[in-house]
Amino acid sequence: MTAPHDPLAPFADGSREPERHLTSLSGWRPFVDDQPVIPVLLSAAERAALSPA
User: Fold this and answer.
1) pTM over 0.70
2) What is the full per-residue pLDDT of the chain (53 aa) written as tens digits?
């Protein structure tokens, strides 16, 4: 069984983001303003060159 995550504990990258709580307006605003990076898709030839694994 795992222990519950402490919301104020450091994340894997070492940052602390208590302002990102989505239940508060101050956390919601940065969440909706965030512009995620859209990954570049592989072409058909690049996908075909991948191993099955």
Assistant:
1) no
2) 555 555 555 555 555 555 568 888 888 888 889 898 999 999 999 999 999 98
